[in-house]
Design brief:
Number of strands: 5
Oligomer: single chain
Distance between the termini: 63 Å
Strand content: 5-15%
Strand order of the largest sheet: 2-1-3-4-5
Order of helices and strands: EHEHEHEHEHHHHHH
Amino acid sequence: MSQPTARSDLRIVILEDHVLFAESLELALTIEGYDVRRAEVPTLEHRPGALLSWTVRQRPRVALLDLDLGGFGAGERLVAPLAREGINVVVVTGSVDRARWGEAVRLGARKVLAKSRPLNDILGTVRRINQGLQVMAPDEREQLLDAWATERSHLVDLRRKLDLLTGREREVLAHLMKGRTVREIATLGVVSEATVRTQVKAILAKLDVTSQIAAVGLAHQVGWRPPVIAA
């Protein structure tokens, strides 16, 4: 087992867009004696790779990463490139979606902690990393990976159902996603309302849902991109 690094020599980067929470972490870790750098996420330029480049330049041993980074989007996309740089990624998130936790672990995160947990849990995780100790039990890791795999399988099934839609049905679903009524869709398509209702029924049947709201929710859930239609 490697010898612990002096805390003053262990640099920690905080990647968090909630300023109050980030400042609390920074204060607690600084009091513990660590070299702490906090990214100014709310003001840092929101261009692709800016946050990653800044973090790598700091040469931290540990990165405390939120999964929701405001203008930078999802924090998951930073996990793998940070891990490849030899940085220990610890996710600290307000998300309760365990499939997202599992994805972060799959991409290389050492640990995932909820923001609702006591601050000492975060400090304890950093201490264990510094001491070269395990921070995630094998059964916890497997449970999170299983949650990710289950959600991924579910999304694949939903996308398969969306692929069953005809071109016209996709257009109708796109209109529904814009909040348009059957009458408005009929007018735009120069068809009867009865025709549109038939198309809506076909959409619900293929997606295995019972309402237009559910169909729209399913499309949003998988990030479905509707065809370009007239405004």
